[in-house]
Amino acid sequence: xxxxxxxxxxxxxxxxxxxxxxxxxxxxxxxxxxxxxxxxxxxxxxxxxxxxxxxxxxxxxxxxxxxxxxxxxxxxxxxxxxxxxxxxxxxxxxxxxxxxxxxxxxxxxxxxxxxxxxxxxxxxxxxxxxxxxxxxxxxxxxxxxxxxxxxxxxxxxxxxxxxxxxxxxxxxxxxxxxxxxxxxxxxxxxxxxxxxxxxxxxxxxxxxxxxxxxxxxxxxxxxxxxxxxxxxxxxxxxxxxxxxxxxxxxxxxxxxxxxxxxxxxxxxxxxxxxxxxxxxxxxxxxxxxxxxxxxxxxxxxxxxxxxxxxxxxxxxxxxxxxxxxxxxxxxxxxxxxxxxxxxxxx
Length: 346
Prior knowledge:
Layout: H1 5-18, H2 21-44, H3 51-73, H4 87-106, H5 121-138, H6 158-163, E1 184-186, E2 195-200, E3 228-230, E4 239-242, E5 247-250, E6 253-259, H7 282-286, E7 300-302, E8 311-315, E9 322-325, E10 340-343
Antiparallel strand pairs: 1-6, 2-3, 2-6, 4-5, 7-10, 8-9, 8-10
Helix pairs in contact: 2-3, 2-5, 3-4, 4-5
């Protein structure tokens, strides 16, 4: 199964959308709402356990999410990778853990929580579901898997044929770029640039041509699979292909369609003003105050630094440690060691 030319335009536009600063800054807003709900649970907790026990870890996840958004706005695409730069992978740990906990509660494997045993649970639960809906719309086809031998995420088949008509696209979709200079990378070799790549049927090099780096295939290269967002510095994956009754995994040659150099010049493309997301539904988003990573960042400072703002400050790894300082007062050590302190949100 291969997309039509119109579907290729849709998939190209969609991959740019779900890898955009606009998409992940929006997700950061849902993460903030979840942290605020977790803080409310921690403040109202009458016994240990539940969201209160994990509040500090959830807050730390928000810090990773914010760092990811700030770096992405400067053009750093390494945040999507699963390595030391993978801020989003680290931000996802507690969200994923708590979604697993919800499934276990539904199956009766663990304590059912509600307002009677966990004050603030209703808001915490809804904020987590909203965050996970937004996260799940963008992450599966963009974030790098921890298993580098997995096939490329994006595959054309029944899912796209069902869901592309539900997505929002501009009336005049931009054409898929035709590269001026071919960049072709076979499965297993290192991807040089983050961006959108498409599997093509390129002739395999002969032994002699391995020593002639300037020799490139000529003529049109047939498309043999679905374009994907791939990550610079990672090995080129195998591709998945769906047929009418089977799913294949094959080594391919990936052709660069579009190098992702967005935001490196300090600007956000005007195209992003038209991005429309499906999850969670728009009614929920209308009541959510989605804060920009640049306009309303998480405020933190380390021991020995002056507090940049008056308020209640929380020690990073101790739920019960908080202090109230005036702006300019020095943040103290905690338990004899330097600590990072985070300003509690009202």
